[in-house]
Structure formats: structure tokens, C-alpha cells
Amino acid sequence: MPERAEILHLLCDEPAGSLRQEAEKITLAQKGSHVFVRGLLEFSNRCKRNCLYCGLRAQNSTIRRYLLPQEAIIASSEMAVAAGADTVVLQAGEGCFDAGWLADIVREITSRLGVPVTLSVGECARGDYELWRKAGANRYLLRHETSDAALYAKLHPGYSLENRLKCLRVLSSLGYEVGSGFMVGLPGQSLESIADDILLCRKLNVDMAGIGPFIPQGGTPLAAGQGGSADLALRAVAALRIAHPRVNQPATTALASLDPARGQAEGLRWGANVLMASFTPPDAAKDYRIYDNKCRVNMQDAARAIEEAGRTHILKNI
Ligand code: SAH
Ligand code: SF4
Question: Which of 67, 114, 188, 251 has the smallest set of CB atoms within 10 Å of its CB?
Fold first, then answer.
């Protein structure tokens, strides 16, 4: 398994062609040609945190806040499953809804629609994670964002990398399949720390990992900064595939947002085996402004990307 120096070499020096081919070869050997398509439901853009990079941060008063009602979340989940999504991913900002309310939704989706539910609602109390697990949720996405503890503290006022990692351990111990991941191109992030991000995903033995370029967003303290490059994000996707072959990796929406025509197909060609298609009602989706020009990937886009990358899917009614 590659160590830090080799991962740095993959990120910086390995010729693009051979890196991509190696990652694609391992993806096909480990995961086959099939691409999993998840149905993403961004059910609330309310958030109590102030992550410096994110448009949903509490102090951003320029966006209209929403919390979808239970019936709307369940109706959108039904649509996602009917279209061939193999899991429903319920994502939101942190700490602005009732845990029991979400547990009821999880119960309804798992019992009635028969698909796994994935949650992505941030750092929560152990009791809440437990409640949702008992309600039937069995996957959880919580990116570690950056493995550089000092940078983590700067970007997340009042929070620590240590607590983030503690949450990931708690989730694992409760029997969730756990997803982490990180951004590439954060201000102050070194290439060495990106290599450490990859090593951390392997050390945590994560089941899933999302890697996306940082995209500056208006209304945040990092609005004027430079974003991450798609090239480096793709190199990181490939390096993670080589370092931790069994991981499920999405071609992220952030990649699609940098290059709407080809971003996701490229992600699949560089080591990803998962896509997320949004089933958030369009009215709400336009307010889920994590970063500028966030793409809304639908099932047609997902099918096109998969076909373009020469892979297979089981999507219906598209
Ligand atoms: N509140 C939850 C889930 C929603 S945010 C959480 O924070 O875990 C989902 C992901 O969006 C975050 O993990 C982060 O990596 C990504 N994100 C936020 N702002 C971003 C930006 N400006 N550019 C790229 N990705 C961003
Ligand atoms: Fe809230 Fe997540 Fe955005 Fe941070 S990244 S401000 S926790 S939505």
C-alpha cells in the first residue's frame, strides 16, 4: 500500500495518463462496471455552524432558509427510488431540526420504500445517532474536511478535528457504514496535508469518501479566495482509489459544478464508482447554496455521465 511519499508522488508527479488508467483498472477490479446512483435530498439549509467556506453558514443572512415538511421529503424519496436510486441520502445543515422528527422520516422511508437511508447532518449527540440508527438509517456521511488540525480549527470556529473524528468513531461503533472525505484547494492547505487526508481515509477504513474541489461562495469569509482545481481533485480521487481500493467514491457535485459537461464522467474515469442525483424540489434546491453555481445533477445527467464513462447502471424511466 502506498505511503505518504508515494501518495505525494501520485498527487504531483505521476503522469496523468498512467495515474488515471491505474485508478480505473482498480475501480473495475474492485467494484465492477456498475455505478451506484444515490438519490440526494437536501431537506434543510438551516445551520447553526459557521464553517468559513460554506454558503449555509449561520451568519450568512442573504439566503432564504427552509425546512422541507415530512410529506415532501417522503414524496421526493419515493420519486428517487422509482427512478432507480439505490439509497436515499438525507442531507442538511447542522442542528436545526428535531431528532425525533428525522427518526420518523427514516422509519417511514426504510419500512415503506425498502431502501437504505444515508444521513448527512453533521456532528450530533451520540443519542441522536443512536436514535436514527434504531429507526433504520445505516449509512452516514461526515467528511473530515481536512486532516490538518490547525487548518480545521481556523475554518471551523469553535470546533475541532478531534471531535469530528470522535463522531466518525461513534458512528462506526453504532454499526453505520461511514463515509468521510475532504475538500481540495482550501486556502492554506498543503499538498502534504492532502496526502494525509488520503492516509486518514485509509486509517479510518471508511466505506465511502467524497473528494471535491473547494469552490468559493459569495457571502462567506472565503468568497474572494481561489478555489481548488478539478485536476488536483481528480488526482486525489485516483490516489485514494489506489491507497484504499475498496472505498465507494462519488464523482462529487463540486466536480460537476466546475465542469458541468464532463466533470462527473471524468470523476468516474479517475476512480469514482458512485453518483449522487438530486431529488430536492427545485424551489428548495436553489436555496441550498453551499457554493456558487452549484450544479443540480438529475438522473438524466447521471445516466449520461455513466454512459460517457463506458460504465453501467440500472436507472429507470429516464
Ligand atoms: N452540514 C453537513 C452536510 C452538508 S455540507 C456537514 O457539514 O457535514 C456537505 C459538504 O459540502 C461538506 O462536508 C463540505 O465538504 C462541502 N462544502 C461546503 N462548502 C463548500 C464549498 N465552498 N466548496 C466545496 N464544497 C463545500
Ligand atoms: Fe453547516 Fe455543513 Fe455548511 Fe458547515 S459545511 S456551515 S455544518 S452546512
Answer: 114
The CA distance from 89 to 140, in Å, is 9
SS3 at position 160: coil
Q: How far is the CA of 29 from the centre of ligand 1 (A)?
A: 30
Does residue 80 line the site of ligand 1, with CB under 6 A?
Answer: no
Given ligand 1 and candidates 53, 121, 201, which is best to mutate, with the most ligand atoms within 8 Å of its CB? Answer: 53
Ligand nearest to the CA of 250: 1
Which H or E run includes 168?
Answer: helix 161-173
Ligand nearest to the CA of 214: 1
Contact yes or no for 159/173 (Cβ under 8 A): no
Question: By the 8 A CB rule, do 246 and 220 touch?
Answer: no
Whole-model pTM over 0.90: yes
Q: Under a CB-based contact definition with an 8 Å cutoff, are residues 277 and 38 in contact?
A: yes
> How confident is the prediction along the chain (318 residues), in pLDDT tens digits per residue?
889 999 999 999 999 999 999 999 999 999 999 999 999 999 999 999 999 999 999 999 999 999 999 999 999 999 999 999 999 999 999 999 999 999 999 999 999 999 999 999 999 999 999 999 999 999 999 999 999 999 999 999 999 999 999 999 999 999 999 999 999 999 999 999 999 999 999 999 999 999 999 999 999 999 998 999 999 999 999 999 999 999 999 999 999 999 998 999 999 999 999 999 999 999 999 999 998 788 889 999 999 999 999 999 988 766
